[in-house]
Design goal:
Structural class: alpha/beta
Oligomer: single chain
Distance between the termini: 45 Å
Strand content: 5-15%
Length: about 300
């Protein structure tokens, strides 16, 4: 197993967004190699940090990194289960929750994980290293299902021709590797479209989201993450594409929504009051951060604070 390296995106901005109290309890939902976790743990005195990750390779790295740190508890699970994770630890409420929704540098750079369209590898893409893989989907899903996945999760306008050519190719032989799929995608697009970034980027994003159930899990998890916050607690989320960012933005705005009565009503009858406030709208990486780590270019940080 190679070292689980990850360059934390929007590193200082995310730690600042949590507004860490030295005696508080914090949760890193996507701990990865422990970059953000280490920064949070450093600010704690009597406080506690729960570092969660679904990737067994990440868990092995975290256990090694924080072996001598009693303030850090490492949990192998998916953040969608944050309520049961905290309940099992006897924790009722926390002062901050963060999640970095990007694929880690380790996952992208480890050939065998099959996340990257730049390297020929088994077509896998499973963050948890278990369950249905990308290979299973491209070889078994119907043409209409493939079209839906690629169009909905990749926002790929050439989804119909890509889906059609995947089905045609797999009738001759199974689609086994990332480059098998890349070649199919390339013949499914006009030359002009292939000059606009890597032709496989959107399809690979779509398959990764489908394999890991990312958007469904995110939608449920946001409510649970907000629910477990103590008054004045902060939730900070880093997204990496517009689909995720839209979900987070909409949900955070809903947490901050107040009275929805028509303006002509003399008094409020709906009884709705804001449950939170936005410390800032959103933050993007600086030019220098993007220069140092191009994978950061699409990242957005959003935060919400629970009302006191």
């Amino acid at each position: 197993m190679s070292d689980f390296q990850h360059i934390p995106v929007l590193f200082y901005e995310t730690v600042d967004a949590l507004d860490i109290k030295p005696d508080g309890i914090y949760v890193d939902c996507t701990a990865g190699g422990g970059g953000h976790s280490a920064a949070v743990a450093e600010k704690l005195t009597t406080g506690r940090l729960i570092s969660i990750d679904q990737d067994p390779e990440a868990i092995a790295t975290l256990q090694k990194r924080f072996a001598d740190n009693p303030k850090v508890t490492i949990v192998h699970d998916n953040f969608v289960n944050i309520k049961s994770v905290l309940s099992n630890l006897g924790i009722i409420g926390v002062d901050g929750v963060m999640a970095d929704l990007g694929v880690s540098s380790h996952q992208l750079d480890t050939d065998a994980r099959g996340f990257s369209f730049h390297k020929d590898a088994p077509l896998d893409m499973r963050m948890s290293m278990s369950g249905i893989s990308a290979k299973d989907i491209v070889n078994n899903a119907s043409e209409s299902e493939l079209r839906r996945i690629i169009y909905t999760y990749g926002e790929e306008k050439f989804a119909p021709s890509i889906a059609k050519n995947i089905v045609k190719a797999r009738q001759i032989k199974p689609i086994e590797t990332t480059f098998d799929l890349v070649e199919i995608i390339k013949i499914s697009m006009p030359m002009k479209a292939k000059r606009d970034g890597h032709p496989a980027r959107k399809t690979f994003q779509a398959l990764r989201i489908e394999v890991n159930g990312e958007l469904d899990k995110l939608s449920k998890a946001l409510d649970d993450m907000f629910d477990v916050l103590n008054p004045s607690g902060r939730l900070a989320i880093i997204t990496f594409h517009s689909l995720e960012d839209r979900i987070v933005k909409k949900r955070f705005n809903s947490f901050c929504e107040g009275c929805t009565c028509p303006p002509e009503f003399p008094v409020c009858v709906c009884g709705k009051t804001p449950r939170g406030r936005l410390p800032f709208k959103s933050k993007a990486p600086s030019t220098s951060e993007i220069d140092d780590n191009f994978r950061a270019h699409s990242a957005r940080l959003r935060s919400v604070e629970k009302s006191g």
